[in-house]
């Protein structure tokens, strides 16, 4: 038994050559298998990443395409709706019924009856019409039909209830149009008897002037239910849609409790509802985060600056990503199953990788070309010499991009730009900090081009600045609209709205830093006689010349504006009552000594008041106005200050 046992033990002893060989082969096989498995896992891992990357790109592309398609359909729907009401307006203005009213004897009632019947018929045919009116050349309502979309009732307003609308903005603005032109109002909420209509009624108005033999005979104006317009904008199966105006007020939000923020300040405007979007409102920046912007000014043509914010619905986005994850997971499993037995074919991986790298390079080149064509950008060296200039920038400045290489930005700087602006700019970027602001430039043809720009220093590995990159966008139109909204078109001074803002700013400075200020109200004496004797054109010229005289005489810190009619207002910062009185005397003398009309001296009366602590600005203006009336009563062509007793009375009443 012992002889049998000994060979058996030696044969299978772990130290025998055969056992060692088998063990070594097993280890090699395991190592090779492990290498192949690891290699397969690496292939699978990187393939999953690439697949997920391209799936995200595909989702972005799908969202982009869907947004562009909805954009097109929405614009067509909006323009069709507005166009249909414009056609209704034109049809009324050229109708026989209106023509009969315009040519009939005032005592004849039959033509007005026919026009009323036409209005009622249109209201029945177009339930979106809330109100149809004909207002004569004096601003008096002649025919008005009201329509309630909730009850579908029609009300023909009786003659004794017709109103004088001569001073309403829509009559004045439509009256200024030429024959055939159409006026569009802002989209807003309707008021009834001075209060918001409940339930809320979105409203838009369109109007056109009526002429007979080139003589203005009134206007036709339609009040339209803007609800269908807003519904057409909001309709989307993929996006949540918000309607926003140029001031950042929300007219419509997916959550109705956040709509119409201009009327309900507690609901919050754009900056409060979408704080994450502030600073990223350009279409390119928004689209990069699956937010889209669609500007609607061309569609509404109402100077409201309406635009639409589109954000993907969460469930739609989750569904897209869910499908993408399934696709990536499925492809990963397939790759893993195939890669395990075929991992030794390592040449496939470099080939696939090379293909992907080439595709990525082409995509980057295409993206760079797209950016070059649509984004205003440039690069300079540390001395400010231009080394790169995008095609979009060259197009905006009307120059050849190659001709800008080697020049500085001084070649496109506007002559009126303050040197302080550029000094502050260079101080900032040379300190290694980015600079952002607005710059006034000039194209090669001499046109003014305002840009909002960001200039960023570029540093090398040692932290030294070797170049500057500038990215800009054109805000010329915005600056023009900003100027129009704050300037009186006749005198080119501040308008009433801007003056109110400046008064409030001065009052706030007084509260913060105790900076006193005063105001001067100027009224041209006997201005009505000038209009009556010399005509309104001469009167307008006097207003313009007086405005020029005021601007030439006041100090650099003073603000001049037209308060209304023949009245002007001067805001005098850092000035007490005595200083304002002296300035008013200079202004009075300047006007009295100039020859504004060939055979008539022009004079003006002045009222002066100094701001009191915690005084409302309208009280300040009221006191200056009383002083002005006192100057008028004392014979005109004089300066009168607001009495101290009145100032104390105002203080005691607060």
Outline the structure in words.
The structure is a single chain. Residues 1-14 and 344-349 have low confidence and may be disordered. The protein contains 21 helices and 23 strands. The longest helix is centred in the N-terminal third of the chain and has 77 residues, at 17-93. A hairpin with a 2-residue loop joins strand 20 and strand 21 (567-573). The strands form five sheets. Strands 1, 2, 3, 4, 5, 8 and 9 form a seven-stranded antiparallel sheet that branches. The chain has a five-stranded antiparallel sheet with strand order 15-14-18-17-16, sandwiched between helices. Strands 20-21-19-22-23 form a five-stranded mixed sheet, with helices on both faces. The N and C termini lie far apart (125 Å). 27% of the residues are buried. The chain folds into six domains: 1-67 and 319-343; 94-228, Beta-Lactamase; 236-312, PAS domain (Beta-Lactamase, 2-Layer Sandwich), CATH 3.30.450.20; 344-373; 375-478, Beta-Lactamase; 487-653, Alpha-Beta Plaits, CATH 3.30.70. It is globular and about 115 Å long. It has 654 residues and is an alpha+beta fold.
Classify the beta-strand content into a percent band. 15-25%
Which structural class do you get from the secondary structure elements? alpha+beta
CATH architecture of the largest domain: 2-Layer Sandwich
Shape: globular
Radius of gyration in whole Å, from Cα? Answer: 37 Å
Query: If you average the pLDDT, what whole number results?
Result: 83
CATH class of the largest domain: Alpha Beta
């Amino acid at each position: 038994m012992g002889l049998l046992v000994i060979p058996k033990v030696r044969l299978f002893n772990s130290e025998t050559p055969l056992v060692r060989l088998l063990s070594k082969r097993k280890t090699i096989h395991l190592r090779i298998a492990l290498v192949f498995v690891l290699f397969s896992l690496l292939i699978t891992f990187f393939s999953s990443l690439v697949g997920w990357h391209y799936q995200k790109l595909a989702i972005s592309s799908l969202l982009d395409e869907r947004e562009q398609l909805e954009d097109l359909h929405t614009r067509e729907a909006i323009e069709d709706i507005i166009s249909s009401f414009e056609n209704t307006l034109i049809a009324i203005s050229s109708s026989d019924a209106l023509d009969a009213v315009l040519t009939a004897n005032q005592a004849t009632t039959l033509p007005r009856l026919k026009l009323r019947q036409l209005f009622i018929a249109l209201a029945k045919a177009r339930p979106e019409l809330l109100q149809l009116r004909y207002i004569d050349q004096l601003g008096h309502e002649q025919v008005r039909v009201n329509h309630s979309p909730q009850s579908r009732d029609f009300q023909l307003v009786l003659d004794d209830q017709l109103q004088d609308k001569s001073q309403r903005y829509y009559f004045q603005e439509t009256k200024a149009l030429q024959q055939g032109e159409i006026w569009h109002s802002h989209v807003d909420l309707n008021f009834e008897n001075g209060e918001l209509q409940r339930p809320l009624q979105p409203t838009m108005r369109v109007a056109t002037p009526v002429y007979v033999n080139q003589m203005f005979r009134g206007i036709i104006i339609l009040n339209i239910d803007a609800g269908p317009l807003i519904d057409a904008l909001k309709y989307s199966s993929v996006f949540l849609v918000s309607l926003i105006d140029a001031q950042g007020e929300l007219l419509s939000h997916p959550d109705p409790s956040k709509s119409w923020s201009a009327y309900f300040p507690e609901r919050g405007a754009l900056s409060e509802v979408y704080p994450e979007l502030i600073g990223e409102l350009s279409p390119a920046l928004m689209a990069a985060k699956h937010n889209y912007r669609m500007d609607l000014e061309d569609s509404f043509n109402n100077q409201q600056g309406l635009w639409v914010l589109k954000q993907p619905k969460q469930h739609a986005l989750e569904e897209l990503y869910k499908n993408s994850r399934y696709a990536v997971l499925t492809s990963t499993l397939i790759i893993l199953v195939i890669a395990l037995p075929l991992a030794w074919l390592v040449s496939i991986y470099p080939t696939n990788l090379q293909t992907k790298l080439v595709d990525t390079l082409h995509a980057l080149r295409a993206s760079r070309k797209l950016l070059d064509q649509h984004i205003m950008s440039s690069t300079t060296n540390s001395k400010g010499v231009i080394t790169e200039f995008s095609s979009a920038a060259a197009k905006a400045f009307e120059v050849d991009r190659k001709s800008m290489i080697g020049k500085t930005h001084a070649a496109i700087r506007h002559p009126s730009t303050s040197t302080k602006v550029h000094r502050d700019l260079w101080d900032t970027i040379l300190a290694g900090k980015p600079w952002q602001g607005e710059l006034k430039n000039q194209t090669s043809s001499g046109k003014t081009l305002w840009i909002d720009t960001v200039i960023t220093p570029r540093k090398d590995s040692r932290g030294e600045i070797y170049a500057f990159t500038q990215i800009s966008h054109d805000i010329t139109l915005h600056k023009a609209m900003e100027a129009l909204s704050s300037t009186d078109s006749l005198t080119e001074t501040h308008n009433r709205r801007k003056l109110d803002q400046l008064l409030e700013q001065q009052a706030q400075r007084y509260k913060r830093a105790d900076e006193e200020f005063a105001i001067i109200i100027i009224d041209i004496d006997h201005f009505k006689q000038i209009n009556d004797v010399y005509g309104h054109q001469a009167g307008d010229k006097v207003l313009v010349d007086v405005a020029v005289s005021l601007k030439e005489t006041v100090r650099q810190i003073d603000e001049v504006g037209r308060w209304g009619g023949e009245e002007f207002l001067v805001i005098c910062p850092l000035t007490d009552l005595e200083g304002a009185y002296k300035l008013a005397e200079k202004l009075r003398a300047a006007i009295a000594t100039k020859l504004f009309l060939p055979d008539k001296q022009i004079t003006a009366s002045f009222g002066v008041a100094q701001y009191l602590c915690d005084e409302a600005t309208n009280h300040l203006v009221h006191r200056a106005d009383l002083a002005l009336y006192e100057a008028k009563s004392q014979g005109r062509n004089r300066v009168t200050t607001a009495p101290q007793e009145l100032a104390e009375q105002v203080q005691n009443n607060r």
